[in-house]
Amino acid sequence: MQVSSLNEVKIYSLSAGRSLPEWLSDRKKRALQKKDVDIRRRIELIQDFEMPTVSTKIKVSRDGQYIMAVGTYKPRVRCFDTYQLSQKFERCLDSEVVTFEILSDDYSKIVFLQCGRFVEFHSQHGHYYKTRIPKFGRDFSYHYPSCDLYFVGASSEVYRLNLEQGRFLNSLQTEASESNVCDINPVHFLFAMGTAEGKVECWDPRTRNRVGLLDCALSSVTADTEIDGLPSISALTFDGALNMAVGTSTGQVLLYDLRSSNPLIVKDHHYGLPIKSIQFQRQLDLIISADSRIIKMWNKDTGKIFTSMEPEHGINDVCLYPNSGMLMTANEAPKMNIYYIPVLGPAPKWCSFLDNLTEELEENPESTVYDDYKFVTRKDLENLGLTHLIGSTLLRAYMHGFFMDIRLYHKAKMMANPFAYEEYRREKIRQKIEETRAQRVQLKKLPKVNKELALKLIEEEGEEQQMTRKRKQKNLPSLLKDDRFKVMFENPDFQVDEQSEEFRLLNPLVSKISEKRKRKLKILEELEAKGEEEEEEPEGKASDAESSESSDDEKGWVEEVRKQRKLLRQEEKLKRRERSKEDQQTLLKPQFFEIKEGEEFRSFKDSAKKQKLMKKTLEDRLKLEEKLGTLNVSDTTVGSKQATFKLKKSEQQRKQHEAEKLHRQERKTLRRSANHLKSKRGRGRLFH
């Protein structure tokens, strides 16, 4: 069981963990549970709560005893009994199910709309009747007062099938080219359908007339939304007599009051994916909307996010168990997910033990997996001397670093710096002593880190206080007393480096201003050493001299920047000279390279040529080989290209080939000479 938390809302995933195969014996299952901790800790709420490949729709019967799901492959429906926590039955179908509806309180009356234009009726014993509708259907709703089924799909008509008379009635003619979804209000039985043009048409089943039209596509486009095409309606649900939620194919959810044509709230999922399902949670006034990637729960009055869930696999349908905090999803995976959120409501009666289990987990929180591991970067590994472990099982790569066992990290740190604990202990003692000293009456002391910056801030605060007194304004809070910037004057890592290039170029007058502050710093340190309580002003130049000096500084800031740049260039030249001297002093050791068997070393130019050749494109390499004669490209009669090439041989193979060729020529000459001698001897005998 996995536990996640978002906005302080705990979500328990009850279907997390591996599932055991059905064909395993009980003995092997027990053995696996003893060995594997994950299998032992998993919770199998309903046995075999899954589909062979994919689950598409999931619903709960009105009495809450049965959970029904459809999926593939092969197309089938499975019914699970919550009282027995196991599967009740399974029925295979002829074609895939688009959607289905449970007409009775239990599983005795079910209607399936299939992708092949078929409408299949099932009773308690199994298949009952099958018929077809004229066009491909996408959704249907059941009108209880008249026993009519309303089918919408790839047509402008809404087909009506009366189950009492057993025949089709006159269809409703709409203005839409196609319809995607439909729903009937449970209070006043208003029929609403969402079209492909992004509109919602409302019809009165009693008079069979259209009573309203909403343009949701226009209302879904706000200043923050970005859409590529015309939004169509992908989800539609009623809540009570007056509220209606509409989901679009571009990822927006619109909440309407039927008395107004403008939406109350427009909520964007920010994924651009069609909304698959919308559910209302009345206890907390929440709306649960889902696309194929995320499930969001948000307040229907304010639109504020309550919590969200992102399953591992794509979502096809979401079902909220009535009057509880349990949520079930049909996914693009065999396993159907079950989530329990205690904030939404209690656990159902058939699994009331979940409340006790979650309470125990909240009382005794377990340490997470990451508590046993330490995240380190490559620089940390270099400092610890553990770079040789990269690529081994002791380090697990993650983002810009690695996870390693905390015990190994502590051992390596102790070996790298054995006196680290003593230094840490001294630092802690020093901090505690300073905390006790802070309670006494102290002199005006400057912090140990960034003293010059602190002095500058004190001077500026004094000037601001004088200005505010004259103007009779409120004093602004001190930066030195602000807890947010406290670490900047305590941690030595935040020390300003005045010798850096950026500091010297961005602050051209720092050198002259810092001299004044350094004088004051020396005087303050002397006063602190003597233990004097009153601070005296340093003897120096008069105020007129200081004002003239500041004016000269303002005029000559350009010259100061130029001087700083010249100094930086001179420093760079000196560094280059030092590097060149070091390079001259270092002795270059000879490097040896191993040559493969069957190859001879000619020069380093060959390797450079090969590297240049490999950088070229395939077209350039083919042209070069065609010039050298190793490749011949010709057109065929069909219109395609034919390429013939010769394999390059190594130097050793070439010499061997030449030796074989010479040997063959010698043998030919010997044979010819032998034949010539035989012919001469034969002629001599004839003459004798």
UniProtKB/TrEMBL annotation:
Identify its protein family. Answer: Belongs to the WD repeat NOL10/ENP2 family.
Q: Coiled-coil segments, which residues?
A: none
Q: Where is the composition biased (Basic residues)?
A: 664-688
- Which spans does this entry mark as compositional bias, Basic and acidic residues? 553-584, 648-663
Tell me the ranges covered by the Nucleolar protein 10-like second domain, including all copies.
Answer: 369-417
Query: Where is it mostly found?
Result: nucleus
Organism name: Piprites chloris
Q: Where is this region: Disordered?
A: 529-589, 634-688
* Domain spans labelled Nucleolar protein 10-like N-terminal: 1-364
Q: What's the name of the protein?
A: Nucleolar protein 10
The domain of life for this entry's organism is: Eukaryota
A biological process (GO) of this protein is: maturation of SSU-rRNA from tricistronic rRNA transcript (SSU-rRNA, 5.8S rRNA, LSU-rRNA)
Keyword terms, alphabetized: Coiled coil, Nucleus, Repeat, WD repeat
Q: Name one GO cellular component term.
A: 90S preribosome
Localization recorded for this chain is: Nucleus, Nucleolus
Indicate the segments forming the NUC153 domain, all copies: 482-508
Bias-annotated ranges (Polar residues): 634-643
